[in-house]
Each structure stands twice: as structure tokens, then as C-alpha cells.
Specification:
Elements: E1 2-5, E2 56-57, E3 71-72, H1 75-96, E4 100-103, E5 128-130, E6 135-138, E7 144-145, H2 146-154
Parallel strand pairs: 1-7
Antiparallel strand pairs: 1-4, 2-3, 5-6
Amino acid sequence: MRHCRLPAPLSLRGGGARHVSTGTFEHPPFKYRQQHTFNTLPVHDANRFGGRAAYLREIGPVNHKTKGRLFKRDPRTVQFNVDVWAAQQTLRKKWKGRDWSVVELPFALAPQEMQRVVPELYTDVPQMTNVQKGDFSNIRGKVYDREQLQLALYGGASKPYPDVVRVDPRAMTLDKFL
């Protein structure tokens, strides 16, 4: 899978600032557990954190005569589930806010630095793109212009998009225009 950058929008609605959530994603302690009343919901119900805080089954001996089967929560497991939920929400917002699309290319037509095995996300340290050429960026964050890949995407017959003209800003001095 390759990333292909889309053209930038002409205008930004609502300003360019992103909303940064300041919410806390720590599961509240169990000592504040409340009963369900007419105006209060229990903190540990399944409606919070996307249902990740639902009851976990108690394993062990249970006195069926007095209590029946108990349902009990392990705080470490519940907090892990809440952390997974928060990470999924962050990933969802990053994915919805992308300005690129994913295209698939054959291995031989891919850019040279992408023609290698990239390990699965979060299973290894992030791989650097090309250390020999001084590109130490994460290879998973590599985004290519559509114009760079159009020979591989559309064949060599004709280019549907004009080539991107790259100008070095240090070369754009005033005496070039005078």
C-alpha cells in the first residue's frame, strides 16, 4: 500500500487550529461505585469508554447459596481496555483528518525505498526510510505526490497530471526577478 497526496484545499473552514482533547482517560477507582438512582448512573457501567468498562467474569469459588455468580472487575484489565479505546479514537480521528489517499502498487513499481519488508505496526521499533541518504523519517509516515507515482499508476502512455515543479527557496533571490 502506498500513500498518494491529494491537492490541498483552497480554503479552511473554521480556522486552521485543530481541537485538542484535554479529557482524562483514566478509569475512576472502584471505591466510588454507586447504585443506579433516578438521577445518578453508576460510573462503572458499560456505556462509558465505548463499553470497555463492562463487567468481567469472576473466576474462582462462588457461594451460590448467598451470592450466586459474581461479576467482578480487574482494575488493570479495565484500564487496559480503556487505553485501547482511547488509542482507537485517536487513530480514527487521525484517519478521518487525512489529506491523502491509499493506492496499491506492484512491488517492482514502488519507489526504491519502499521495496523492502516493513514490519507490522507496533511490533518493532519504527523503521527509518533511508539511513544511507540521511532520511531518518519513519517509513510508515512516507507520503508521495501523485505526480511522482503517475508513471507507475497510469502506465507510460501519457501523464494525466503535470509534473510538480520544485523550487529551492534559497535560490529564489530578488536579483532573479530584476
